[in-house]
UniProtKB/TrEMBL annotation:
Keyword Nucleotide-binding: no
Protein name in the entry: TetR family transcriptional regulator
Residue intervals passing through the bilayer: none
Entry annotated with the keyword Repressor: yes
Pfam families: TetR_C_6, TetR_N
DNA-binding region, residues: 30-49
Top-level lineage group: Bacteria
Entries under InterPro entries matching the protein: BetI_C, Homeodomain-like_sf, HTH-type_TetR-like_transc_reg, HTH_TetR, Tet_transcr_reg_TetR-rel_C_sf
Residue ranges annotated for the HTH tetR-type domain, each copy included: 7-67
Keywords of the record: DNA-binding, Repressor, Transcription, Transcription regulation
Length: 200
């Protein structure tokens, strides 16, 4: 197998693993399930991932990296800090089937028991906080935001979004997407000295 073929096969396995994980959950996904869904041998799965734990951690990272690629596109753009902030808040909101959020919630839960997954989850989770803090810092520097603690504000805003997103993704009709958006904007406006209208 050429290196390029191996990379393509690895990418296909990770995509398949993500599909299986969303359907079965991290705790109930076996390497045999991924091999069957991908139409390959279990030995090939173990060739790419020495352990089930490594497979799950890399599949989780693969899924979350798709979200982070969209976040990078926002933070690296030439938009103003306020526009970047609005876009980040929109990216964070669960939409449709909320597949991405299913992976995040499952990943956090399994991280309590799987050290390899915890390391990946922590690294990827911190990226959101760091990028949000960087946008807040830039907004303070240009006078758009008023905030004495960008890191703390990023953590508090993210914590509210995480908590509401879990409710929205897990519990049908407990809160609406409209409520999610309103409450997140309210907390963000208070943290950054903005009017609610600034975040519409």
């Amino acid at each position: 197998m050429t290196r390029r073929a191996a990379e393509i096969r690895l990418d296909a396995l990770l995509r398949t693993a993500c599909d299986v994980i969303v359907e079965r959950g991290l705790a109930n996904t076996r390497t045999a399930d991924v091999a069957n869904a991908a139409g390959v041998s279990q030995a090939l799965v173990f060739y790419h991932f020495a352990t089930k734990e490594r497979l799950l951690a890399q599949a989780f990272a693969y899924a979350v990296e798709q979200d982070l690629a969209r976040l990078d596109a926002v933070t690296r753009s030439s938009a103003t800090p306020l526009t970047k902030l609005r876009r980040i808040l929109k990216l964070y909101t669960p939409a449709g089937r909320a597949t991405s959020w299913s992976m995040w919630i499952d990943g956090w839960s399994e991280s309590l028991r799987t050290p390899e997954l915890e390391k990946v989850s922590r690294r990827l989770d911190l990226r959101w906080r760091q990028d949000l803090a960087a946008v807040i810092t830039a907004g303070v520097a240009d006078g758009t935001f008023q905030c004495a603690d960008a890191d703390g504000a990023a953590w508090r805003i993210s914590a509210v979004m995480d908590g509401l997103a879990v409710q929205l993704a897990v519990h049908d009709r407990v809160i609406s997407r409209r409520q999610f958006g309103e409450w997140v904007r309210l907390v963000t406006a208070r943290e950054l000295g903005l009017d609610l209208a600034d975040l519409d």
